[in-house]
Amino acid sequence: MTSQNPVFIPGPTNIPEVIRKACDMGTIDHRSPAFARIFRPAVDGVKAVLRTTAGEVILFPATGTGGWEAAVSNTLSPGDTVLAARFGMFSHRWIDLCQRQGLTVQVIETPWGQGAPLAAIEAALKADTGHRIKAVLATHNETATGVRSDIAGIRRAMDAAGHPALLFVDGVSSIGSMPFEMDGWGVDIAVTGSQKGFMLPAGLAILGLSPRALAAMETAKLPRTYFDFADMRRSYAAGGYPYTPAVGLLNGLATSVQMLLDEGLDTVFARHHRIAEGIRRAVFAWGMRPYAASPDLYSDTVTAVSVPEGCNGTDLVKLAASKYDVAFGVGLGEVAGKVFRIGHLGMLTDVMALAGLAAAEMCMADLGWPVTLGSGVAAAQDYYRNANTEAARAAA
């Protein structure tokens, strides 16, 4: 039968039944008032999740990668310089995308396991007295290493340098699961996708645009057609799209944002932190550690587990899939084989997390890794029991 086990990859994530049903709808005319009744709640809900009142939201039929291409092509021109730190596979991919678009990328090489280097970013911007750098690219949550960067700190560095560059943030695996303050952090373009914190299938690139980003469109000369913000905004004003939209996904998104807002964003973030902390305690009980270099960098949506010397994280992922029908994430790029990744975002509970930890332990035992069955599960159980007791007292 089809597996009923939850997935423990950092996206796509588990889909709640109510969202699955919202996506499963009959055909409607996407130029009719019926579509507008789906579309407007989705857009307004995303604005609330991004915590922006000043910005606009645009939803493309695409994924996060398409969102990044839209971000750069609508605001930059051939030969423009952007500043980016490379400290994981996904920060690397955004650098590669910009280079393919004909942009000059000033790269700050940073060890994997570290976050965005605030001092180096500030120094690079201060040195750019001619303001050649037009945008700073920041990966909020580096999914390959389980590292969360300080976006508010990057904005402070930019302000301290007195630099007018735009701030573009990859929030693909953070938005909707961890605190994100588009207006408060001075983010000019936020990029995410439907398949992670929003708990939908892949297929929507979700962007938040500040007034400064919209103004940059006036002089941007990179080519764009499908991803043209101007076309989208003109059609949005009339309640529609310049081409055929992903109607079912948009209906699911309207349901998703309402679920997040009904739970309460702060409660959503607290749930993710609690689940993540229980998983981290299990990792330490196994005698292992997260790949992130320090606790202030720990992600609340994915933990990259450094495996013991002589072990291969990919072996665990393959065995979990073939023997137990459970999905974990492999190590990517520089950390291939050195880690396996546990995704803990979206539709997830403490009890579901415990099932994933138990499956990981069985795989470790099967592979002959030095682990005591039940050790990580017990550590997480102790934490969840106490954390939920404290939460219940606070709510009383």
What would you say this structure looks like, in words?
The protein has 396 residues and is an alpha/beta fold. It has helices at residues 17-23, 33-50, 64-75, 89-100, 118-127, 151-161, 211-216, 229-237, 247-263, 265-285, 313-324, 350-367, 375-395, and strands at 56-61, 81-86, 104-109, 133-139, 141-142, 147-148, 166-170, 189-193, 204-209, 289-290, 302-306, 329-330, 339-343. The strands form three sheets. A seven-stranded mixed beta sheet has the order 1-9-8-7-4-2-3, with helices on both faces. β2, α4 and β3 form a beta-alpha-beta unit. α5 runs parallel beside α6. The longest helix has 21 residues, at 265-285.
What descriptive keywords fit this protein?
4-stranded antiparallel beta sheet; 15% strand; Aspartate Aminotransferase, domain 2; 396 residues; alpha/beta; Aspartate Aminotransferase, domain 1; 7-stranded mixed beta sheet; single chain; 2 domains
Q: What is the name of the CATH class of the largest domain?
A: Alpha Beta
Q: What is the C-alpha radius of gyration, as a whole number of Å?
A: 21 Å
Strand order of the largest sheet: 1-9-8-7-4-2-3
**From the coordinates shown, what is the CATH architecture of the largest domain?**
3-Layer(aba) Sandwich
Protein structure class: alpha/beta
β-strand percent reads 5-15%
Shape: globular
Main sheet properties: 7 strands, mixed
What would the CATH topology of the largest domain be?
A: Aspartate Aminotransferase, domain 2
Report the strand count: 13
Unreliable spans are none
